[in-house]
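User: Please write out a complete single-protein record containing the residue sequence and its fold in token form, without commentary.

AI:
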Amino acid sequence: MRLLSQIFQPIITIPKGAKIKNTEITCKSQKLLLECGLVRPTSAGFFTLLPLARRAITKLENIIQRCLDDVGAQRITLPCLTTAKLWATSGRLDDVGPELIKVVDRHGKKFLLAPTHEEAIADLLADVGPVSYKQLPLILYQIGNKYRDEHRPKHGLLRAREFNMMDAYSAHISHECAAKTYNALTDAYHRIFRTLDAPVCRVEAPTGEMGGSLSHEWQLPAPAGEDALAVCPSCSHTALASDNNTCVKCGKETERVNSIEVGHTFVLGTRYSEPLQANFVGPDSSAPIYMGCYGIGITRLLAAILEVMSSEKAMRWPTEIAPYTAVVIGPKEGSKEWSQHDFNKVQEVARHIDDSGFRDDVVVDDRHTLTIGKRLMMADRTGYPYIVVCGRSALETPPRYELYRSTRGEALPPQLFTLDELINVMRENKINIDVEYIENVNRAK
């Protein structure tokens, strides 16, 4: 249980027409994250993630890790710096070119801040190889910062030069083996997005500079998106928008919807293993490893979810990744309610909630010189899934507390509960989320 006054959350108000140095407010997620004290821009495309944003991202990372571990993936950490020689060997050093952030060490050796690690994984497999076919399939993944020298970074975390990402890589003996893993990772992606209540669509996509034989983008429909989907209102088929606006499945006209790419998956084949000599040894011979790769932009996904779920005035979070699940607001100091329900009793309410399954996920708004209304408005703007108010009804026998629950768009009307009733409502919702996750896992298996 933490006190709100102790949380580093530099809230600001940006006047209409104000010019913000090093940033341009172009979407509501960017505006809300900045104004509510979750991020601070340091320079174009670079951001400091403040405590509330860091908590949300940690929760999101944990969901992703849990779903990947369920399909047998193993977590590793690769260096952010990759030798440019590897990218020259794969042929991508010049192809990607301007988007790479390059550095030279004191010995004149060239490195780059990797936007992705296909070459590094292939080099790792070559270095420990040749790998036995009995060790395959193998899925390795990491969660960390990636770098891309965006020509025009914009929309805050939606298009940044440094971003948090999950990138996974699989190794196989054949296309058939790779396809099975690809399907398993696809199921894991679906579970991740269902857990977040995010209506992400998987659509076929060109392989582009990554290469390979198969590619899908994972797109979240959002007005601020720079990509676009063609959605058929007749058969619900969804594809990347193109000049041909007719559904390939049923021939009907499609509707164009803006979207944000939050993930990408590829079957790479031997695109990287062959030039970097990452081979496996079979019963009779040796051959290049057949590879796949999978990515989810974590900071981008967080911003995209806020973009879709939030109102113009208040953030709205999936309960699973809200920085804190609940905030408890006590009476104003000096009021009649305060005289009978002081800070000690407010802390007691918060402690009961904290101990009932929300360990370290409850915060107390201890700014008692502010009115309940002021603190309630600020809590709603931050988007706590549960706001518990100790108001007039807290003086009743037994005491009853106002519970405000937020959802997409605006907050729901408050309800009055005793403390036990309130905790049961919150726990029931948490149990339903956990049960749904387990059912999704079992269904996929």
